[in-house]
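Exercise (ungraded).
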Amino acid sequence: MLTLLNLLKDGRFHSGQALGVALGISRSAVWKQLQHLEAELGLTIHKVRGRGYQLADPLTLLDAEKIAVSTPGWPISIFDSIDSTNAEALRAVDRGQTAPFLVLAERQVSGRGRRGRKWASPFAENLYYSLVLRIDGGMRRLEGLSLVVGLAVMQALRKAGVPDAGLKWPNDVLVGDKKIAGILLELVGDPADVCHVVLGIGINVNMQATDEVDQRWTSVRLESGRICDRNVLAAELNSQLRAYLQRHESEGFSGLQAEWEANHLWQGRPVSLIAGVNQIEGVVQGIDNQGALRLKVNGVEKVFSGGELSLRLRDDS
Ligand code: ATP
């Protein structure tokens, strides 16, 4: 099916006969595959008598060679469709694949957010990206790591034409109040000895519509008004991640604390911090040198950390 898509991706018209010859199949088999492409991948294909078939929008598929330009030491696996790039990355660790390595997909059928939430992942529109690192006996290297990833994603987005991309603790990337990227770190092994951490990143790149997201969202295309080449963005993300991870390793999170705070969209804002059934009202002061949230609660500064916490702006803010 993807061979057919590769023939169509230029956005030009192709006759059923030419497609059949290129694929070595009959015209009716071409027709069936086209219907399958539309149903399975949600693509729109124009059919015009006498001219043939044309993709409604030209398509650029992910290309490992282009993505690897800045980080040749990070081997890349690209899937047409996968449950979740994080899930595949964890399976690869289990199979003994040597880190660092990258897993990307054109779509995810069970893309995941925090606490079992779903990440909308339509075909060939966005980036679904997981980088696996091996961490040897260094709890310090895990401190604030998801915030560091947020900085790298934010900088890659700014380079892609989204100058207003900013951060929301702990690891969302927003433009104003709209989510443009999500980050999900998953860890296997013993953090005090040897472990692998999967840095899962979903970035809305060319998505213009979806009925799968129940909060305000945006994409690079919606913000910049231009189609964004996902291969260029992924290569930029690689180099930003490499640079920030190196700084994190040499300076620890404290070296990045001020930069993170300077890009925190909710600095000084009144918020509710939700921890399961509990809710704490406070005003954001910033983060500490391990990436924990500093909140002024009833006039006293308190520090909060942990994967189960969610921050919401207070209605009166
Ligand atoms: P938290 O503040 O706890 O992180 P969150 O709603 O941002 O809350 P995440 O787990 O980070 O939660 O992300 C999952 C949520 O993001 C989903 O429940 C959905 O509301 C939203 N979402 C899903 N897919 C997308 C997408 N492609 N773009 C933007 N937002 C999405």
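Further reading is listed at the end of the chapter. For now, observe: The CA atoms of residues 1 and 36 lie 8 Å apart. The chain has three domains: 2-55, 64-261, 266-313.
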